[in-house]
Specification:
The structure is a homodimer.
Chain A lengths: L1 H10 L20 E4 L2 E4 L1 H11 L11 H16 L1 H19 L5 H23 L12 H15 L9 H14 L1 H7 L1 H4 L11 H14 L2
Antiparallel strand pairs in A: 1-2
Chain lengths: 218, 208
């Protein structure tokens, strides 16, 4: 269906992007879209572009200007909060140790989890509240953008839904709205990211990247 | 359309500490600068160039707005906190290595801003000003307001700023930035000692 088709494009925000020839690099982890000569980065911009180009069902980005504003409000807050914190769990637990050969810095993970907790609290109290989805009774781009970041800690063993029943219920509703099969397909790489720990990295590459990655830890 | 703590739309609810612009339109309230600007552009059917109907140009505005949050918006306002607001509330002198760190982060963002977004164009998405330029300029005026003139040794940025001032109208531009440009005067105000005590730990945490 059109919305499931859209869902496929939206949820593939990890390196592989099904739209045209996505240009991505694992290290930058920038989803990118190529549509003929037109290239576009930034997940939010890509989702909005696709929703307009393919005239997706209204609920994704409602035409009602107040509901639309609520999606925009979430998307804006998201960048400095969820998106700033959730992916760090993956860097700290898997990617940095992989490239630097150094063990997990536990106080760093602690710090990151605290930051993430603060964001999750705001997410629940300010945005989700007692609604089914972020802007009300129907799923929108806001929910998609949120869920893909929040699955990253899950992928590295920090299950942030475990002791947050309201969030867990919301996640279930998002899975159902997108379709379980598509949802897990979209998150396949994230959920198996720990397998990356077993791959061999070229020592020269490690040497080049280690200082960059250590700087990220600050 | 102008920005900053005072918002001409209805009764703007802002608090100096949070510095969250907010819009109130009847019963409808909205926060987040980007969301507010988009809402206003739709409600008042503003000229197309602000948020072009062409989906590729519009996507380029969205792309900038998205990148902006994690980069310019993450770095530029810190200069104001480090140089004026935190010393004001904690009574502690300027931590110079912190400012250094912030300026380095801001430099990195500015380099990307010039090379990836602005390039040799008049404005971020091309020959006409858009919401992207507005959102960028208001954050970049903050370091200027506290004496870190990031335009000084960046001629391309300086030219862009002049074009934005002209497009918005010089009078309106400076009116919008009045508070930011006189923020140093805040250093002279007296803060209630009890309030200082309450806020100091929160602000010190921000410095980390």
């Amino acid at each position: 269906f059109r919305d499931k088709q859209t869902g496929r494009k939206f949820c593939s925000v990890w390196p592989s992007n099904s739209e045209g020839a996505g240009k991505v690099s694992l290290l930058k982890k920038v989803p990118a879209l190529k549509d003929g000569d037109f290239t576009l980065a930034e997940c939010t911009a890509i989702l909005l572009y696709l929703s307009r180009k393919y005239n997706t069902p209204d609920h994704w980005y409602p035409s009602d200007i107040q509901k639309r504003a609520q999606v925009d409000e979430y998307l804006s807050w998201h960048h400095a909060n969820i998106r700033a914190n959730a992916p760090k769990t993956m860097w700290i637990k898997v990617l940095i140790p992989l490239f630097t050969g150094q063990p997990l810095p536990s106080e760093k993970l602690q710090e990151v989890m605290e930051g993430l907790s603060t964001s999750l609290k705001q997410f629940e109290e300010r945005f989700l509240q007692d609604k089914a989805f972020i802007i009300g009774s129907e799923i929108s781009l806001a929910d998609l953008v949120a869920i893909v970041e929040l699955m990253q800690p899950v992928g590295v063993g920090c299950d942030i839904f475990e002791d947050r029943p309201r969030l867990m219920e919301w996640r279930r509703r998002v899975e159902d709205a997108v379709g379980k099969e598509l949802f897990f397909q979209a998150h396949e790489m994230i959920l198996s990211v720990k397998e990356l720990s077993n791959i061999q990295i070229d020592p020269q590459l490690k040497e080049q990247l280690a200082p960059v990655l250590m700087k990220m830890l600050k």
